[in-house]
Design brief:
The complex is a heterodimer of chains A (about 110) and B (about 120). Chain A has about 110 residues and is mainly β. Chain A contains no helices and 10 strands. Chain A starts with 8 loop residues before the first strand and ends with a strand. Chain B has a single domain (about 5-115), classed as Immunoglobulin-like (Sandwich), CATH 2.60.40. Chain B has strands at about 5, 10-15, 20-25, 30-35, 45-50, 55, 65, 75-80, 85-95, 105, 110-115. Classes of the chains: A mainly beta (about 110), B mainly beta (about 120).
């Protein structure tokens, strides 16, 4: 989970493997966004999933959202070394400016 | 190729001295944000502008100031830097008024080190 008092999560895998990162949140949300931050760069949005959607796909990415358990996941199939980054989930509502980030998951993909 | 630019990329400041960070965007976005990012922590929203209206988070209200002289530029000002201000400062902009439908476009960040 990206929230709570636990440390930043870290995953190390080999290129070609599939990976799933999880995110749980504590407050009401109408949208979950997943961002990726590569070394030396700012975060970039990967996928947005709304509270009325259970799943969203974009290329090798698949995001899920379960509002009943207040959790979301991001899966990457056939990882590449270039997927190495920190992945953040962020939750938001219709309130202007309200996007709250989790601590992130550090993913290292070895070639 | 980022369209949110931040300056400086690296800033070294002495305790008690002021710090001014600059952000610009060329997308004509109405909303601009400043986040503080410390190692192994979540990006923390400090403040944001919607058009000319500044909104500051309650717990950082007195620590950070900002100005937005025009739609493209936004600054973050620290009047007297303390060691706890050492962090990466991320500027972002968004087209939409809320985050319900849109995304944030981030700059590459300004790394502030206070000694």
């Amino acid at each position: 989970s990206q929230w709570g008092e636990e440390n930043l999560q870290a995953l190390s895998i080999q290129e070609g493997e599939d990976v799933t990162m999880n995110c749980s949140y504590k407050t009401y949300t109408t949208v979950v966004q997943w961002y990726r931050q590569k070394s030396g760069k700012g975060p970039a949005q990967l996928i947005l999933i709304r509270s009325n959607e259970r799943e969203k796909r974009s290329g090798r990415l698949r995001a899920t959202l379960d509002t009943s358990s207040q959790s979301s996941s991001l899966s990457i199939t056939g990882t590449l070394a270039t997927d190495t980054a920190v992945y953040f989930c962020a939750t938001g509502t219709q309130v202007v400016g309200q996007l709250t980030f989790g601590r992130g998951t550090r993913l290292q993909v070895y070639a | 190729d980022t369209t949110v630019k931040q300056n400086p990329r690296y800033k070294l400041a002495r305790v008690g001295k002021p710090v001014n960070l600059i952000c610009s965007q060329t997308m004509n976005h109405d909303t601009m944000y400043w986040y503080q990012k410390k190692p192994n922590q979540a990006p923390k929203l400090l403040l944001f502008y919607y058009d000319k209206i500044l909104n500051r988070e309650a717990d950082t209200f007195e620590k950070f100031q900002s100005s937005r002289p025009n739609n493209s530029f936004c600054s973050l000002y620290i009047g007297s830097a303390g060691l706890e201000y050492s962090a990466m400062y991320l500027c972002a902009s968004s087209r939409d008024r809320t985050v319900n439908t849109g995304q944030l476009y981030f700059g590459e960040g300004s790394k502030l080190t206070v000694l």
